[in-house]
Design brief:
The chain is mainly β. It is built from two helices and seven strands; from the N terminus they run H-E-E-H-E-E-E-E-E. The chain has one domain (about 5-145).
């Protein structure tokens, strides 16, 4: 299976918060800068939990106002891209496409989230296809701002 950087990907998509207007070229995120903590669970092909992880990261004022597309690219080292994003105040969804060249694999799926400027909950379903065939991965994550950096 591909070495997926879904944890930050989920974070990047979940943290998008804005309603586009006619003069806005791309939606912008609106977060409270500071120290964030997130927990993610991964299951593959219905086999139950295969990975759980908890990590922390800092969001500075500049990152808190990035476009959702820029943030997803940054947090996944350019491996994943979002398309057909529907982002509103408090929720969002998008299609996700990822490339894992080190494993000769690709991923396609959907992600949805609910969030505030200090919390988020996310679910992603991705089909990963590589030399060994296809696998269905399900991700559940949540995060919250826990303090200053």
């Amino acid at each position: 299976m591909a070495k997926i950087k879904i944890l930050p990907t989920v974070t990047g998509l979940a943290l998008a918060l804005a309603v586009p207007t006619a003069t806005t070229a791309e939606q912008r995120i609106n977060l409270d800068p500071g120290l964030w903590q997130y927990a993610t669970t991964l299951s593959v092909d219905g086999r139950g939990v295969v990975m759980q992880d908890t990590e922390s990261f800092c969001i500075d004022a500049a990152t808190a106002n990035m476009s959702a597309t820029d943030l997803v690219g940054l947090l996944t080292d350019g491996q994943c891209r979002a398309s057909n994003a529907i982002l509103t105040a408090g929720s969002g969804s998008a299609q996700m496409s990822c490339v894992y060249p080190e494993d000769n694999a690709r991923g396609e799926g959907d992600i949805s989230a609910t969030f505030t400027t200090t919390t988020y909950d996310v679910q992603a379903k991705v089909t990963i296809t590589g030399p060994g065939g296809a696998s269905r991965a399900n991700f559940v994550g949540n995060g919250r701002r826990v303090g200053d950096c």
